[in-house]
Design a protein that fits this description.
Layout (H helix, E strand, L loop, with lengths): L1 H28 L16 H17 L5 E5 L13 E7 L2 H12 L4 E3 L9 E7 L2 E10 L3 H14 L2 H18 L6 H5 L2 H18 L2
Parallel strand pairs: 2-5
Antiparallel strand pairs: 1-2, 3-4, 4-5
Length: 211
Protein backbone atom coordinates (compact mmCIF):
# COMPACT_ATOMS: atom_id res chain seq x y z
CA UNK A 1 0.00 0.00 0.00
CA UNK A 2 2.83 2.43 0.85
CA UNK A 3 4.54 1.55 -2.42
CA UNK A 4 1.34 2.23 -4.37
CA UNK A 5 0.87 5.61 -2.64
CA UNK A 6 4.46 6.60 -3.45
CA UNK A 7 3.98 5.63 -7.10
CA UNK A 8 0.76 7.65 -7.23
CA UNK A 9 2.52 10.72 -5.78
CA UNK A 10 5.37 10.33 -8.27
CA UNK A 11 2.87 10.16 -11.14
CA UNK A 12 1.06 13.29 -9.95
CA UNK A 13 4.38 15.13 -9.59
CA UNK A 14 5.44 14.05 -13.08
CA UNK A 15 2.30 15.46 -14.68
CA UNK A 16 2.52 18.67 -12.66
CA UNK A 17 6.11 19.20 -13.85
CA UNK A 18 5.07 18.30 -17.40
CA UNK A 19 2.26 20.87 -17.33
CA UNK A 20 4.68 23.55 -16.04
CA UNK A 21 7.18 22.75 -18.81
CA UNK A 22 4.50 22.87 -21.51
CA UNK A 23 3.21 26.19 -20.10
CA UNK A 24 6.71 27.67 -20.30
CA UNK A 25 7.22 26.52 -23.89
CA UNK A 26 3.82 27.74 -25.07
CA UNK A 27 4.25 31.07 -23.27
CA UNK A 28 7.68 31.78 -24.75
CA UNK A 29 6.37 31.03 -28.25
CA UNK A 30 3.93 33.93 -27.82
CA UNK A 31 6.72 36.47 -27.30
CA UNK A 32 9.42 37.97 -29.46
CA UNK A 33 10.14 39.86 -32.65
CA UNK A 34 12.97 39.74 -35.14
CA UNK A 35 15.38 42.65 -34.82
CA UNK A 36 14.20 45.75 -36.66
CA UNK A 37 10.62 44.50 -37.03
CA UNK A 38 7.77 46.61 -35.70
CA UNK A 39 4.55 44.77 -34.90
CA UNK A 40 1.79 45.43 -32.38
CA UNK A 41 -0.28 42.60 -31.01
CA UNK A 42 -3.31 42.32 -28.74
CA UNK A 43 -2.68 42.04 -25.00
CA UNK A 44 -2.15 38.49 -23.78
CA UNK A 45 -2.35 36.99 -20.30
CA UNK A 46 0.76 35.04 -21.33
CA UNK A 47 2.86 38.19 -20.94
CA UNK A 48 2.69 38.02 -17.15
CA UNK A 49 3.49 34.28 -17.22
CA UNK A 50 6.49 34.91 -19.47
CA UNK A 51 7.68 37.69 -17.17
CA UNK A 52 7.41 35.41 -14.14
CA UNK A 53 9.47 32.72 -15.86
CA UNK A 54 12.18 35.17 -16.91
CA UNK A 55 12.16 36.90 -13.50
CA UNK A 56 12.94 33.57 -11.85
CA UNK A 57 15.67 32.85 -14.43
CA UNK A 58 17.30 36.21 -13.77
CA UNK A 59 17.13 35.76 -10.01
CA UNK A 60 18.87 32.40 -10.41
CA UNK A 61 21.58 34.03 -12.55
CA UNK A 62 22.19 37.25 -10.61
CA UNK A 63 21.16 36.35 -7.08
CA UNK A 64 21.95 39.09 -4.55
CA UNK A 65 22.86 41.53 -7.33
CA UNK A 66 19.13 42.10 -7.96
CA UNK A 67 17.68 44.48 -5.36
CA UNK A 68 14.30 44.76 -7.10
CA UNK A 69 12.83 43.40 -10.32
CA UNK A 70 9.63 44.56 -12.07
CA UNK A 71 7.60 43.93 -15.19
CA UNK A 72 7.36 47.27 -17.03
CA UNK A 73 6.62 48.55 -20.53
CA UNK A 74 3.48 48.01 -22.57
CA UNK A 75 3.19 44.25 -21.93
CA UNK A 76 2.74 45.16 -18.25
CA UNK A 77 -0.20 47.46 -19.04
CA UNK A 78 -3.45 45.53 -18.98
CA UNK A 79 -5.47 45.32 -22.17
CA UNK A 80 -3.46 47.45 -24.61
CA UNK A 81 -1.74 46.47 -27.82
CA UNK A 82 2.03 46.23 -27.65
CA UNK A 83 5.14 44.79 -29.24
CA UNK A 84 5.33 41.18 -27.96
CA UNK A 85 8.64 41.82 -26.19
CA UNK A 86 8.75 41.69 -22.39
CA UNK A 87 10.37 44.69 -20.68
CA UNK A 88 11.98 43.91 -17.34
CA UNK A 89 13.39 46.50 -14.94
CA UNK A 90 16.16 45.54 -12.53
CA UNK A 91 17.46 47.78 -9.76
CA UNK A 92 20.87 46.93 -8.34
CA UNK A 93 22.89 48.50 -5.53
CA UNK A 94 26.19 48.15 -7.43
CA UNK A 95 25.71 48.86 -11.12
CA UNK A 96 29.40 48.53 -12.02
CA UNK A 97 29.58 45.09 -10.40
CA UNK A 98 26.37 44.11 -12.23
CA UNK A 99 27.89 45.18 -15.57
CA UNK A 100 31.15 43.37 -14.90
CA UNK A 101 29.37 40.15 -13.92
CA UNK A 102 27.10 40.36 -16.99
CA UNK A 103 29.92 40.87 -19.46
CA UNK A 104 32.18 38.24 -17.92
CA UNK A 105 29.70 35.55 -16.90
CA UNK A 106 26.34 36.06 -18.64
CA UNK A 107 26.73 37.65 -22.06
CA UNK A 108 26.68 35.19 -24.94
CA UNK A 109 24.25 33.80 -27.48
CA UNK A 110 21.08 34.30 -25.39
CA UNK A 111 21.88 37.49 -23.47
CA UNK A 112 23.62 40.37 -25.26
CA UNK A 113 24.43 43.87 -24.03
CA UNK A 114 23.36 46.83 -26.15
CA UNK A 115 26.53 48.84 -26.73
CA UNK A 116 24.86 52.01 -28.05
CA UNK A 117 23.52 54.68 -25.63
CA UNK A 118 19.83 54.27 -24.74
CA UNK A 119 17.11 56.91 -24.43
CA UNK A 120 16.55 56.13 -20.76
CA UNK A 121 20.22 55.91 -19.81
CA UNK A 122 19.79 52.31 -18.71
CA UNK A 123 22.21 49.41 -19.01
CA UNK A 124 20.26 47.36 -21.55
CA UNK A 125 20.43 43.59 -22.03
CA UNK A 126 18.58 41.79 -24.82
CA UNK A 127 17.36 38.22 -24.48
CA UNK A 128 17.23 36.47 -27.86
CA UNK A 129 15.98 33.00 -28.73
CA UNK A 130 15.08 31.38 -32.04
CA UNK A 131 16.17 34.47 -33.96
CA UNK A 132 13.83 36.76 -32.02
CA UNK A 133 14.27 39.37 -29.30
CA UNK A 134 12.17 37.99 -26.44
CA UNK A 135 12.92 40.50 -23.68
CA UNK A 136 14.62 43.79 -22.92
CA UNK A 137 16.21 43.94 -19.47
CA UNK A 138 16.70 47.53 -18.28
CA UNK A 139 19.17 47.84 -15.42
CA UNK A 140 19.49 50.90 -13.17
CA UNK A 141 21.23 51.69 -9.94
CA UNK A 142 18.76 51.38 -7.07
CA UNK A 143 16.75 54.58 -6.71
CA UNK A 144 17.55 55.99 -10.17
CA UNK A 145 14.56 58.16 -11.12
CA UNK A 146 14.46 56.74 -14.66
CA UNK A 147 13.75 53.33 -13.18
CA UNK A 148 11.28 54.61 -10.61
CA UNK A 149 9.30 56.62 -13.18
CA UNK A 150 9.04 53.55 -15.44
CA UNK A 151 7.19 51.81 -12.62
CA UNK A 152 5.07 54.90 -11.94
CA UNK A 153 4.11 55.12 -15.63
CA UNK A 154 2.98 51.48 -15.59
CA UNK A 155 0.98 51.91 -12.39
CA UNK A 156 -0.64 55.16 -13.51
CA UNK A 157 -1.90 53.65 -16.76
CA UNK A 158 -3.13 50.51 -15.05
CA UNK A 159 -5.20 52.63 -12.67
CA UNK A 160 -6.53 55.10 -15.32
CA UNK A 161 -8.53 53.44 -18.08
CA UNK A 162 -8.93 56.67 -20.08
CA UNK A 163 -5.16 57.15 -20.12
CA UNK A 164 -4.62 53.58 -21.28
CA UNK A 165 -6.94 54.26 -24.21
CA UNK A 166 -5.05 57.45 -25.13
CA UNK A 167 -1.76 55.62 -25.01
CA UNK A 168 -3.01 52.76 -27.16
CA UNK A 169 -4.47 55.21 -29.70
CA UNK A 170 -1.11 57.00 -29.90
CA UNK A 171 0.73 53.70 -30.37
CA UNK A 172 -1.60 52.68 -33.20
CA UNK A 173 -1.23 56.09 -34.86
CA UNK A 174 2.57 55.84 -34.71
CA UNK A 175 2.49 52.22 -35.85
CA UNK A 176 0.46 53.11 -38.95
CA UNK A 177 2.89 55.94 -39.67
CA UNK A 178 6.18 54.11 -39.10
CA UNK A 179 5.49 50.37 -39.54
CA UNK A 180 7.34 50.33 -42.88
CA UNK A 181 10.04 52.76 -41.77
CA UNK A 182 13.57 51.33 -41.74
CA UNK A 183 14.29 53.39 -38.61
CA UNK A 184 12.10 51.78 -35.93
CA UNK A 185 13.28 54.38 -33.41
CA UNK A 186 10.88 56.93 -34.94
CA UNK A 187 8.05 54.91 -33.37
CA UNK A 188 9.77 55.05 -29.98
CA UNK A 189 10.65 58.75 -30.18
CA UNK A 190 7.03 59.53 -31.13
CA UNK A 191 5.88 58.34 -27.70
CA UNK A 192 8.44 60.31 -25.71
CA UNK A 193 6.48 63.53 -25.07
CA UNK A 194 3.33 61.62 -24.12
CA UNK A 195 5.24 59.40 -21.68
CA UNK A 196 6.85 62.44 -20.03
CA UNK A 197 3.41 64.05 -19.62
CA UNK A 198 1.98 60.92 -17.99
CA UNK A 199 4.94 60.67 -15.63
CA UNK A 200 4.34 64.29 -14.62
CA UNK A 201 0.71 63.39 -13.84
CA UNK A 202 1.81 60.34 -11.86
CA UNK A 203 4.30 62.37 -9.84
CA UNK A 204 1.66 65.01 -9.11
CA UNK A 205 -0.84 62.35 -8.05
CA UNK A 206 1.78 60.74 -5.80
CA UNK A 207 2.66 64.10 -4.25
CA UNK A 208 -0.99 64.98 -3.59
CA UNK A 209 -1.66 61.55 -2.13
CA UNK A 210 1.20 61.93 0.35
CA UNK A 211 0.36 65.39 1.71
Amino acid sequence: MVYQNNKKQETILFFLLYDILILEVLSMENAGLKKGVLELMDYSDDYEKIYNIERDNLKDIYGYRIKQIDHVGSTAIIGIKSKPIIDILIQTDDLEDFKKFTEEEVEGVTYTVKKEPTMGGDYLIRKEEDGKVKAFIHVYKTGDMNGITSIMFRDYLNSHEDERKRYEDLKMELYDKFKDDSNRHNYTYGKDEYIKNVIAKALEEYKNGNK
